[in-house]
Design brief:
The chain is mostly helical and about 190 residues long. The chain has helices at about 1-15, 20-60, 65-95, 100-135, 140, 145-190. It has one domain.
Length: about 190
């Protein structure tokens, strides 16, 4: 009986002020889901519109060089890949409507693994397709003037290097940090239950 009293004292003395309540947890899950749904839908719509624009350019712009057509095809493939991967992610996000805390944490951990794979494989392939496609696409436009060609390719190389070496890693780190914080908050609450 003495152990039970001690256990009760320990249980009641635990500080839970820093932990979110049940309604706060529900709000956190709904907010995560709704903001990511909006982001995914906006990204899919933008990718579809830009890919459709590129397809219309293929039919409207009569290029004389094969490099332009190959560049257009690579950019269109990158757009299709972007739409496909985000549509799959949107489907997974849509299915997490009524989950328990543990199921939601498992979902977030799967998202974390998927983001690592996306960052290392899928995003690299898409950016590579787009980068090479852009380099090939602009060749016909600038090849006749050496100074224009040099300045266009220099500008494009600098922009691509900034994307690859600065913007992409920073965006990944920021998203990973946000996801890690969400997982930690959810795990703290689940441990209390």
């Amino acid at each position: 009986m003495d152990n039970l009293t001690d256990l009760k004292k320990i249980w009641l003395s635990a500080k839970t002020d820093s932990l979110p309540g049940a309604s706060e947890m529900l709000h956190m899950v709904k907010k995560y889901r709704s903001t990511n749904l909006v982001k995914k839908i906006a990204l899919i719509i933008a990718a579809i519109l830009l890919t459709a624009l590129m397809v219309s350019i293929v039919f409207l712009y009569k290029s004389s060089m094969l490099t332009t057509r190959v560049g257009e095809a690579m950019i269109i493939l990158a757009g299709i890949m972007l739409v496909y991967t985000n549509a799959r992610s949107l489907g997974r996000l849509h299915r997490i409507k009524d989950n328990t805390n543990k199921e939601f944490i498992a979902y977030l951990e799967q998202v974390q693994r998927n983001r690592i794979y996306y960052h290392k494989k899928t995003q690299v392939a898409g950016l590579l397709l787009t980068s090479i496609g852009l380099l090939l696409y602009i060749y016909e436009l600038v090849c006749k003037n050496f100074l224009l060609c040099l300045s266009a390719y220099t500008t494009l190389f600098i922009w691509l290097l900034i994307n690859w070496l600065v913007i992409r890693p920073r965006a990944y780190k920021r998203q990973a940090r946000k996801l890690e914080e969400t997982i930690n908050k959810m795990a703290q609450v689940s441990k209390q239950f």
